[in-house]
Amino acid sequence: MADVAHHAGVSSQTVSRVSNGLSNVDESTRQRVLDSMQTLGYRPNGAARALKSGRFNTIGVIMFTLGTLGNMRTLDAIATEAAKADYSLTLIPLPDPTLGAVSGAYRRLSDQAVDGVVIVFEAALLDKGDITLPPGLPVVVIDSNSGSGYPVVDTDQAEGARKATEYLLSLGHRQVFHIAGPPTSFSAVHRIEAWQATLLEAGITPPPVLHGDWTTESGYRRGLELGRRDDVTAIFAANDQMALGVLRALHELGRDVPGEVSVVGFDDMEEAHSFWPPLTTVRQNFADVGRVAMANLLTQISGERGVAGTTTVSTELVVRDSTGPAPR
What structural domains and CATH numbers belong to the chain? Predict the structure, then answer.
């Protein structure tokens, strides 16, 4: 810094102001300092700056799996919003969805100089229903029923499942069958409950739930089961991958989509419009989930109080060619 100050003919305090992006420096002086920095190859010491300010400009992310579309899109949205705010990410993926594993990862991040933590739940905690984390770091939870202790941001899972079910009923289908995600998944459970409630409100007894594991193969297997039944005219799959498996099964069984059976998915993955037929699905806005979560976390990091309770991001039903009127 002293070398830059000498080269630019300014004080070390002026160099510090320029390197920290402060506005109380004349523009011509700022440019002269920046030119000297470039000439001398000067780079501010981020570690020293962090020790002095107590800010590390790093966000920790705890996530159970990177293998699902929802989690990957959510992570991408968090990373995008973090970059806009000049923060980097430290990711800790956990294969073990238990309270102990989450608490251990949280403590690790506490020791690794992060300013806050985002926790993304794909599966329910197996050994306790609510999260209990050590106090200290700001935290935001995505896709979870974490109790009242932490801010939660999630897609409105119930709204999305309700829209899918109501749309199929509006087409004249007398029953809607559901291929759900794993019973340990919070989002899968929310969608099941909304699907059941919507049918009951319409005076229809919900049929038994068929569970998949989010994969195309599990949707294919369940699609073969349902496709062999003449009374099945409408299927709501809990994600687009399973819906794709259902479409394959129905094609192999000679069932016309949507002439005989209508199919709705959930997520609106990028390829959904290229399924055959193009898939009607519920669009999740993962970018908004990441934006809202990061805004809440950065508010806490700044010393203010974040939004408490659960903040939900609305869904959108995207109608394409995989759905049609119920057959006579």
Answer: 2-44 (1.10.260.40), 55-153+286-310 (3.40.50.2300), 157-284 (3.40.50.2300)
